[in-house]
Write a structure and sequence with these properties.
Elements lengths: L1 H10 L5 E9 L4 E8 L4
Antiparallel strand pairs: 1-2
Amino acid sequence: MVTEKIFESALGISSPWFIAGMNFEPSQRKLNIRVNFEVGS
C-alpha cells in the first residue's frame, strides 16, 4: 500500500483516481500500473 502511495505522488494521481495495482516483470523490464477511479465521482 505504501508503494502505491509513492507512485500516486510521483505521477500526480489524486482523488478520485487511485492506483489499483502494480505488477513488475523483471525479466521483461516492465512495470504495469493499473489506475482506477472511485465509482460515482
